[in-house]
Amino acid sequence: MDKTVTFSFASSNYVGIEATETFSLKELGIDGELNDENLKIEIDKLFQAWVWDKINISYSIVISD
Asked: Looking at the record's lineage, which domain of life comes first (predicted)?
């Protein structure tokens, strides 16, 4: 059986801003044989992208002297 990951978030500032979705590692394109540390790194990257897509975040970072 494929391992699954459930992504979920809820806003503490805005009522009704929440989402939950479950994916298999295969759906996410993640190698199920990764060690725990590398698996967490890959899932964290995908989670951030998932949240940003769900709440349609656009951002920029400007560093100036």
From this structure: Bacteria
